[in-house]
Design brief:
This protein is an alpha/beta fold. The protein is built from 16 helices and 13 strands.
Length: about 350
């Protein structure tokens, strides 16, 4: 999905960010204190009365990517994402959007930031119960200051965009949970923000509707290339949606990488355990499974793009009866054969000369 290059300026740049809850003076001392940074969350709470919800976190959100913040309950996901627009005030660190220092913004700039640049889509959208679907979406435009005539036209467009055509005159109470989420999404899109921040928007939905909404987000992202930051505690959701995933534990990012990097090369035992049950062949690609081409192999066999998943490659190799080539812009990067593909399925470490999984 992501077409950006690393060289492009990030949308959000976050460096050494901390959020410590607790008595103000004690909380302010935690980030700089060598003692406190070495303590576990429980030890820190016992010694200082403070909770370090976000601890020394550094990352960039790149233009056009879906950046997922994942972790178990209490790992600091919501706090971190709320810090991005200062819905929660960070305790220490630096933070910018498009190069502008967010921590230096006054109240007016902050309001503009939250309205126009980085709009949040919450799990509970707070739709206005007495207004119709169309009016709820138009309300998003009203607070943007869009005139009445334009509002209704634009709202109708957005309602159609999220697949609610024909339901414009219903009230939120007459909609399913998934449909309500779509209204909330349309309302957030109304602001045409540079970044959409999603806080576990689908966690209350049943699995089928949830899947449908994930596809909706993926489709919107694909169509518009809008930058998205998406919080979830659901690994499958993170893997499905994320271009990159920041995996949090106890306020820290324990690994930041593509789904393939996280599943294929877990940074530590915690991550390894986290991804243990993931069907590797659905996440890892032929980049991980390939080996260098032997003489003559670069010229024959089916050609696969580097982003082809192992499960897709298994089908191609089974059909052709021989190795497949991994080809990028006409160049053969390597080949995948049945042994390499099976090694991925079996979760075996990479053999020398084979792929990137370590
Ligand atoms: N206002 C607050 N005062 C004190 N502690 C807080 C406050 N808000 C959050 N915390 C604590 O900070 C830690 C991180 O909370 P946060 O809500 O960011 O986690 P989360 O990963 O989003 O969890 P969940 O998935 O359950 O929403 C938790 O230990 C939580 O109890």
């Amino acid at each position: 999905m992501n077409t950006t290059t690393p060289a492009e300026a990030p949308v959000f740049a976050v460096d050494g960010l901390w959020k410590v809850f607790g008595p103000e003076k004690a909380a302010a001392r935690v980030p700089g204190s060598a003692d406190a940074t070495g303590l576990s969350a429980t030890e820190l709470r016992e010694r200082t009365g403070c909770t370090a919800a976000v601890r020394d976190v550094t990352f960039d959100v790149r233009k056009g990517e879906v950046f997922v913040v994942m972790g178990l309950s209490g790992s600091g996901k919501s706090t971190l994402v709320r810090c991005l627009t200062r819905l929660i005030e960070p305790t220490a660190g630096s933070l910018s959007i498009d190069g502008e220092d967010v921590l230096a913004m006054d109240a007016g700039r902050l309001r503009a930031l939250r309205r126009h640049r980085a709009a949040m889509v919450f799990q509970h959208f707070g739709l206005l119960p007495h207004r119709t679907v169309l009016d709820n979406v138009a309300y998003g435009l009203e607070i943007q200051g869009v005139g009445r005539g334009d509002r209704r036209d634009r709202a109708a467009e957005l309602v159609a965009k999220v697949g609610l055509e024909g339901l414009e005159e219903r009230r939120p109470g007459q909609l399913s949970g998934g449909q309500q989420q779509r209204v909330g999404l349309a309302r957030a899109l109304a602001a045409d923000p540079e970044v959409l921040l999603f806080d576990e928007p689908f966690s209350a939905l049943d699995p089928l509707i949830r899947r449908e909404m994930q596809e909706e987000v993926a489709r919107l992202h694909h169509e518009e290339g809008r930058t998205m930051v998406f919080i979830t505690h659901d690994l499958a959701e993170a893997l499905r949606l994320g271009d990159r995933i920041a995996l949090m534990r106890d306020g820290r990012i324990v690994q930041l990488g593509t789904p393939e990097e996280i599943v294929g090369s877990p940074a530590d035992d915690y991550v390894r355990d986290f991804v243990r049950d993931v069907p590797r062949e659905q996440v890892l690609t032929v980049r991980t499974a390939m080996r260098p081409a032997a003489a003559g192999e670069a010229e024959r066999g089916p050609a696969l793009a580097p982003a082809t998943t192992v499960v897709e490659a298994i089908e191609a190799v089974a059909r052709s009866g021989g190795p497949a080539r991994v080809v990028d812009h006409g160049r053969c990067l390597g080949v995948v054969d049945d042994a390499g593909l099976l090694a991925v399925v079996a979760g075996l470490p990479a053999t020398p000369g084979r792929g990137v999984a370590a």
